[in-house]
Amino acid sequence: MTFVAIPFGRVVGAQIPPKNFFQEIFRAVTWSSVVPPADRFDVLADFNSEAVLDRNTGLVWQLAPSTQRFEWVDSRSACINSASGGRRGWRLPSIVELTTLQEPGSPAVPPNAPFVLPDDPAVPRIFWSATSDAADLTNAWVASFEVALSFSDEKSRSHYAWCVYAAMTAHQY
Prior knowledge:
The protein is α+β, with helices and mostly antiparallel strands. It has helices at residues 21-28, 72-80, 95-99; strands at residues 4-6, 10-12, 41-43, 51-54, 60-62, 69-70, 126-133, 136-144, 149-154, 159-160, 164-165.
């Protein structure tokens, strides 16, 4: 579904959105309630089914994060240069955004999550965030999907990148 909104309420160049389109968009992010686990994640056909909407946060995530590991600066570049879902505009998430994918009390993503994570038993599932460590700028925050833990690690180390497609606010970093 593609459309272009023009001032004064006209829609040009494509289909008029369905009647409940905006209610669905705003339902995607409701901070006063939690979406039931079975309804939390939607694979997005408009992204060639290569991205997933998290209805709890409104963030769009890559369905399958990189299986290559990068140093921190290269993980940022990998996201910036990603064309997942036929789209540009991906970025490395903040540590706060990244940890929303962890099930409370568990290192795993929530049940019913459609994500395809790297599966090399010899390499821990640790993902970079864009958040530098304020106490040591040679480090950045990572989230481990092996143990329910986030920690600061040297930017010269190699970890996975899991890109997010969402607006960026500088204070998150």
